[in-house]
Give the backbone structure.
Amino acid sequence: MTEAPSRARLLTIGTVCNRLKDEFPEVSISKIRYLEDQGLLNPGRTQGGYRLFSEDDVERLQTILRLQRDEFLPLRVIREELEAGAGKERRRRRSAVGTGEEELDLEELCERAGITAERARELEDFGLLEPRVEEGQRVYADSDVDIAAACEAFAQFGIAARNLRAFRTAADRESGLLEAVIGPALRSRNAERRQAALGDLQRLAQSAQELADLLLRRNVRRLVD
């Protein structure tokens, strides 16, 4: 007679953090708590309130961290990906570092982002979309779909494209800082140094995104205090 399987082992947040360190050196207990606060994780709790993570929770956390690291997705989009079954067979966005992106024409962009051609032109006028021109036709990056959709969400509250230039300016300043730190290594003739710089750029960009999210969250909390 075989023994009945034991109850699945539950893991503490510290154990989960240590387990993920090899693949995600920057992960921390505070980051895992932050992802839970954002509604991306929902671990169990002991009667004393301590978090307990199942293997499914760990797998979900790995998916979140990979989407952040490899595809630079904002948390809002990651939440949508998880709800749609991220981690299963699906069309993956290309990494923002080191590879190109799928390209779209204006009609495809508008269809996928849910905007009009006039709206796309307005977003271009204010530097929120930056298509390249090929044989007289505008060509958009796949990531422009998310940018256009996010801008359209603001439009539902009467916020015009010209009022969103602050986001573009902030992004330019952040990327300028990263370029100042990593740029020399990215331009190195040494292939190993360039490859290491790509990893550093990914980690820095992720940290920049998290910091921007945290600062905005703090300011939003002040609105309701």
Remarks:
- The mean pLDDT is 85.
- The radius of gyration is 21 Å.
- Residues 191-224 form the longest helix (34 residues).
